[in-house]
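Hi support team,

I've been running sequence recovery on a batch of backbones for a student project. Most finish fine, but this one hangs at about 90% for roughly twenty minutes before it completes. I'm not sure whether the input is malformed or the queue is just slow. I've pasted the structure tokens below so you can try to reproduce it. Let me know if you need the job ID as well.

Thanks,
M.K.
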């Protein structure tokens, strides 16, 4: 049969084989062993832990070693049909069909777990095109190949992923420069005092910081990349890694007339404005929130599985602290809601730091715990308000 002209149908069709896609399938199977599910993915369909991409170097793990389960085993374990290395070209909302590179698939319910792309900065210079990003296992394999036998890596972005990669690379004996327009590391997540502690520990491990500036150009000079910063600093590096943030994948939804904002807009049942079409994970926006972390994805997958199997269930988000994987200084962050009134109060403790974001009447609205203070995670989390009640 010519796959490109084939037609098939499935009760539930899920697009995307990342954590969101596979977790919602696992949750559905806990509730219903029989309902036909088809997973469509542009990737090979294997399962791996994406958060490990920024910590695998120090663990001496190659890309292939991060695959926990191959596609065939996932299909067998979860009783589903996987169309791997398959592009989805369009969604026909009226006919409830998706058009793919391997034919048309009819759905009763469609779940978009499309993920997000790394943001690419518009850079100048003859080597701007050599800047790498790591957003999946294949990207990671290319990155590992690029740094093999090299010594110096420059990272664009001092956010969560940039700091994790910086720590991982210095543990792997690389020289690391981190560049960010912000005045500190983790600028959107933690107060200045906490940032200073993290920067100090990572500096001691070998990271060089370049704050309040941007990259003006990247040029190749023989075997070296010359990075010119806006403040006039010149950095010589072997490889440049960009980790400036994520951009939800919206094109497929937009083309189908599905409402989008920062992400694909969904209600509390994770349903889009198109009947029978849902979204979750890094591509989805729930009441203005796009939370590209593991715990929100798990919460969303559990709620959506119940809805898809017949009982409409609203998503709730409890307080969900995020662990920053920086062994130089263990860090847990639970930032306050955007725009909420209050102030940070920092308290150094033996071997660590506790920072509390409190309202004017003393209620805890967010926190940062570092070093030994991370032991307070459970107790402080109980004090926090829910993100989405």
């Amino acid at each position: 049969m010519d796959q490109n002209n084939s037609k098939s149908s499935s009760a539930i069709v899920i697009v995307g084989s990342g954590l969101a896609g596979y977790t919602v399938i696992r949750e559905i199977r806990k509730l219903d062993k029989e309902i036909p599910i088809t997973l469509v993915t542009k990737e090979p369909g294997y399962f791996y832990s994406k958060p490990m991409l920024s910590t695998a170097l120090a663990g001496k793990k190659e890309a292939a070693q991060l695959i926990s389960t191959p596609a065939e085993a996932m299909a067998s374990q979860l009783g589903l049909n996987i169309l791997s290395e398959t592009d989805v070209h369009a969604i026909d909302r009226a006919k409830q069909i998706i058009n793919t590179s391997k034919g048309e698939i009819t759905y009763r319910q469609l779940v978009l777990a499309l993920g997000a792309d790394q943001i690419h900065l518009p850079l100048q210079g003859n080597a701007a095109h050599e800047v790498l990003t790591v957003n999946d296992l294949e990207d990671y394999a290319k990155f590992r190949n690029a740094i093999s036998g090299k010594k110096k890596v420059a990272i664009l972005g001092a956010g969560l992923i940039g700091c994790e990669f910086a720590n991982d690379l210095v543990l792997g004996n690389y020289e690391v420069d981190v560049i960010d327009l912000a005045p500190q590391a983790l600028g959107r997540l933690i107060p200045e005092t906490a940032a200073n502690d993290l920067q100090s520990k990572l500096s001691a491990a070998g990271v060089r910081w370049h704050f309040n500036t941007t990259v003006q150009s990247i040029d190749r000079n023989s075997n070296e990349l010359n990075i010119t910063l806006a403040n006039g600093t010149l950095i010589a590096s072997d490889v440049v890694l960009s980790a400036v943030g994520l951009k939800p994948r919206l094109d497929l939804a937009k083309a189908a007339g599905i409402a989008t904002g920062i992400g694909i807009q969904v209600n509390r049942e994770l349903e889009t404005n198109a009947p029978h079409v849902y979204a979750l994970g890094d591509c989805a926006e729930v009441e203005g929130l796009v939370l590209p972390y593991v715990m929100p994805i798990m919460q969303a997958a559990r709620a959506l599985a119940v809805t898809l199997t017949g009982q409409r269930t609203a998503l709730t988000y409890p307080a969900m602290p995020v662990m920053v994987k920086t062994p130089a200084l263990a860090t847990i962050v639970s930032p306050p809601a955007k725009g909420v009134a209050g102030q940070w109060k920092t308290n150094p403790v033996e071997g660590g730091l506790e920072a509390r974001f409190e309202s004017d009447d003393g209620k805890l609205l967010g926190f940062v715990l570092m070093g030994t203070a991370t032991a307070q995670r459970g107790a402080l989390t109980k004090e926090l308000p829910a993100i989405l009640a």
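--
Follow-up from support: It reproduced on our side and the slowdown came from queue contention, not your input. The radius of gyration is 22 Å. No action needed from you.
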